[in-house]
Every structure is written in C-alpha cells, then in structure tokens.
Records
---
Amino acid sequence: MNLDALLTLSQGVYITGARDGDNRLVGSCIDAVMVVEVAPAQIMVSLGKGSYTREVVSRTKSMSLSVLPADVSDDIIQCFGTQSSRATDKWQGQDYRLREGLPVLQNAVAGLILRVIHTIETASHEVFLCHVLSAEPGTMAEPLTYHHYQQKRKDKQMTDTKKWVCSVCGYVYDGEVPFEELPDDWVCPLCGEPKSVFVQE
Ligand code: FE
C-alpha cells in the first residue's frame, strides 16, 4: 500500500478555535475537514487525540473554523501547528474577531461556527460531526489546499538545501546575505570570478 495515494484527495488547511474551562482561547492547525451535507449544513472535523484543542472541543462541543488563504504566512501555520495550546496562547498577537465567543482569523477566506452533534472515536483521532451554526465569507481569496501547502514546503526545503557553488574554483557560498541579494559586482572570494559563474547544486 502506498499512502501517497491519500494525498491526492483534495482537502484544505484550517485553524480551529475553541474556549477552554479557564476561559482561554485555544486552537490548532488542521486539514481533515469535510462537508457532509449543505441542508442542513453539516461538516466533519477530525482532531488528533494528543491535541489540547481536541480535549476542549470534546468537552464544550463548540469550535470555530477559519479557512486559510493560499498566501497565508508560514508564521500562522507554525504558530498553530507546531506547539500546544496547553502551554501557549496561540491567539495572542493574531488578528482575529470573536464570533459567538470563538476566534476567527481576520484574513480567513471564510469563518464558521460549529456545534458538535456526534463524535466518532478512531485509534488516533476524534471525529466531530458538526452542525454549522453560522458561516460567513471572509476575504473570499483562493483557499489553501493541503496539496499546495505540501508543495510549498517541499519547494522551500529544496531552496533551503541548495548551495551556490563557483563553477570555476568550487567555492561554496555560505554568507549571511542570501546569494540572490548579493550585488552584481560581487566576486568569488577565492578566484575572483563574477557572480554569474556561480551555479546552484
Ligand atoms: Fe571561484
């Protein structure tokens, strides 16, 4: 079995929001969301069991969903996707508004407020069937797809790991300034050849 096949299923990237028992806003970056039906509007949201946001949603049965735009900053995905709301206030410093007491990002493509009506437990996740209490278009920009997000990550890794090498003497550029931003009259510090003889390897 090749699980890459699952990555061909289209899905988006979202920020969930919820409010815990101490009245703290929590949230998480997720991709597993599916529209089940539109009349009445119901969607499914899957949250990992290790997630504090999952714990809060399980208890409060309420959550918000912000649909991320294709040009979302990496900072938002980093903030919500790589740390726990148990220890960090992820919403602090974010540009958001409260709807029904739940946070929705201002630059979201759309914002939804959800009420959990049924829960299914899997080995690693809790899957919430939700009634859509309210749905508001936001910027209506192009939404970020999970595929696009993965592609952006791969492209970034490629450019991060590629080195600029002098094709004449083999010198590998390792300066602080990105190679592309060096002035045109910059020359190889070893052999003195111009910037134009450098190639990416
Ligand atoms: Fe050189």
---
Amino acid sequence: MSLYRLIYMSAAADYIDWDDLKDILTKSEKNNAELDVTGMLVLSDNKFLQVLEGPADNLNHLYAKILQDARHQNSQLLSYTPIHRRLFSAWAMKGVNLAFMKPELKEFLVKKYGASGTGIAIPKDEFLAFSVLYDIYHLNQA
Ligand code: FAD
C-alpha cells in the first residue's frame, strides 16, 4: 500500500484551550493508530502545523474530518506527497506546544525560522514547513 505525507497549517479558533488540545491529542492517538497514521501536531502561538503520514485512503479520510473541525480555521494544505518511508514514525500523534518548549530549544527555532507572537513563524513554503517539523521532531527525541 503506498504511503503519503500530508502537511498543513491552520489557525486555532479563538476559544481553544489546553483541555481542547488534550482532547484532540487523546482522540488522535487512538484514531490514528487504527488508521496506521503517524505524525505530529505543533501549536505555535495560535497556529497549528501538522504532519500526517500513512496510506493515502486513510490520510484522505482523516484530513477531510480534520478540515470540518470548528476548533481551527483557514487550513492551508502545504504538501501532499508520496513517500517511500515514514520520517515521523515515532508517534500516532505527538502534540508539541511551543509555549512549553525548553527556552534554549525554542531560541534555536526562532533564530532559524523567525518569531511570531510567542512562537515561531510558520513558513508556508512546503520545504521550510517540512524543515520546521523535522527539527521539532528530532528536538523532542533528543
Ligand atoms: P467525536 O470525538 O465523537 O467527534 C464528533 C464530531 O464532533 C467531529 O466532527 C469533531 O470534529 C466534533 N468535535 C468533537 N469535539 C469538539 C469540540 N470540543 N469542539 C468542536 N467540535 C468538536 N483527529 C484525529 O483523529 N487525528 C488527528 O491527527 C487529528 N488532528 C487534529 C488537528 C487539529 C488542528 C484539530 C483541530 C483537530 C484534529 N483532530 C484529529 C480531531 C478531529 O478533527 C476530530 O475531532 C476527531 O478525529 C473526531 O474524533 P471521533 O471520530 O472519535 O469523533
């Protein structure tokens, strides 16, 4: 079965709070494991950046569901590409809130990608967005 990687960004709805995020992550871990999907969800200031990897049909189904979720808006698909292996395979869904990241790690990201509000600027370029996610993924495993 062919694997794909999907990356999108969106803006959190005004009312989203820590309990909403926990709810999203708990559901995601369960649902994604059932769909053979792995990935990571980053919250930077009020922006989401998410990477999802898995079989195309499952990814399409999941992304269609995520797009309907009123807890975020203005979703922009940044990348949807076939892959021969997963690069974000450690978790069914890992949540990373930059507000709680170690200051020295956040400083590294801010220097590299620029600041926005209390987080980093999320690039719309697909390769830079991938780079942000790849850096955060490895910083969280170190
Ligand atoms: P239920 O939890 O029963 O939800 C049914 C419906 O209610 C869904 O349409 C859901 O969108 C909506 N809903 C539930 N709670 C709320 C709430 N508090 N406010 C508004 N609407 C609500 N889900 C995943 O499975 N995997 C992911 O990787 C994933 N990533 C996400 C990333 C972001 C940025 C956001 C905002 C949501 C994400 N979700 C993800 C959640 C997804 O949108 C659905 O809410 C979830 O998959 C529904 O789970 P369920 O099918 O068990 O239905």
